[in-house]
Specification:
Helix 5 packs parallel to helix 7. The chain is built from 13 helices and no strands. With 320 residues, the protein is mainly α. It has one domain.
């Protein structure tokens, strides 16, 4: 059952990725991150109450409470906010491909900190998914390089553009690419540490809905506090309560379901296996993008082959 919930989490996250890109542009000040955090808190809170009324309430202890709060800071606030930024600027496929660094961070942390076994199927699945990830990253890097070269060639053909302006544009292009990729890398790192914190918290308080609700609550509070000092966050908070944006609402719902399913999976199987099975998110995102983002993202043969290769790795993990 743990593997099934991990796959459902991947589906929820992939649908969210597509909806985020569909509902935002690079110029958007609100990408729906705060909205998704609130939806997560509401859905998981509702589920927690329903389960509590039917099966009884869990015993809350300080250690579990603290670990769930730490997980909320790392995943719901930092991880999700950075991920939404990454999807907004890079697109759903590129951002999801970079997010695949998460399983490798998670495997290392799971083995070193949680003494989880490193089995042969885990190793084989990891190799295949890593190969898929590497191919997608190479394809994205090549596409970005071509775009930069085209822009620089346009500068050369424009005699009215002076040398200072050309150099500044060249620097800004490279700087923008580096910053947007850092969003995804740091998001993956935060998620990996956060998943370990969640796993420890579930060991203290074995109630995934409570952990998800508490983590989302902490994330929402931190987002509002940040909004007092950052205009972008302040605009996002205000827009959440004043504008109806269906794509971002759908993104928040699917993202919340993905997190809840992920939490349930963590309560049943090892964090490293959950993270690696959930790597199918990148494959599902590619396939869904073909239907929802035809005019927003393009696909190469290498990306399709990488998707199939990663799917084989995920199947090995699921049955292993």
């Amino acid at each position: 059952m743990g593997s099934l919930f991990a796959l459902l989490a991947a589906l929820g996250f992939s649908l969210s990725n597509v909806m985020i890109k569909r509902g935002t542009t690079k110029a958007s000040k609100n990408n729906g991150a705060f909205l998704s955090i609130l939806i997560t808190a509401l859905l998981s809170g509702f589920a927690f109450i329903v389960v509590g009324l039917s099966n009884g309430w869990p015993i809350i202890n300080v250690n579990g409470f603290i670990w769930f709060c730490i997980a909320g800071v790392l995943t719901t606030f930092l991880g999700r906010t950075l991920l939404y930024n990454s999807i907004q600027y890079l697109g759903s496929i590129r951002a999801t491909a970079i997010k695949r660094l998460n399983p490798f961070f998670a495997v290392i942390l799971g083995v070193l900190l949680l003494n989880e076994p490193f089995t042969l199927p885990l190793f084989l699945g990891m190799i295949l998914i890593f190969s898929s990830f590497a191919m997608i990253i190479y394809d994205n890097y090549k596409a970005n390089t071509d775009n930069v070269n085209k822009q620089l060639a346009a500068d050369v053909e424009a005699p009215e553009t002076n040398l200072t302006t050309k150099n500044r544009r060249r620097f800004n292009l490279k700087k923008d690419l580096n910053i947007t990729y850092l969003y995804g890398i740091f998001s993956a790192l935060c998620y990996a540490f956060g998943y370990v914190a969640r796993k420890i918290g579930l060991g203290e308080i074995p109630e995934p809905f409570f952990g998800s609700m508490l983590g989302a609550g902490v994330g929402a509070i931190l987002f509002v506090i940040t909004a007092m000092f950052r205009e972008r966050y302040r605009v996002a908070v205000i827009a959440t309560f004043t504008k109806f944006e269906i794509w971002l609402i759908m993104a928040g719902v699917f993202s919340s379901l993905g997190q809840i399913f992920y939490f349930i999976a963590l309560s049943k199987i090892e964090v490293s296996r959950v993270a690696l099975i959930a790597s199918t998110e990148v494959l599902l995102t590619i396939f869904l993008s073909m239907f929802f983002l035809k005019n927003y993202e393009t696909y190469s043969r290498m990306v399709i082959f990488a998707a199939l290769l990663g799917m084989v790795g995920a199947m090995i993990l699921a049955v292993g």
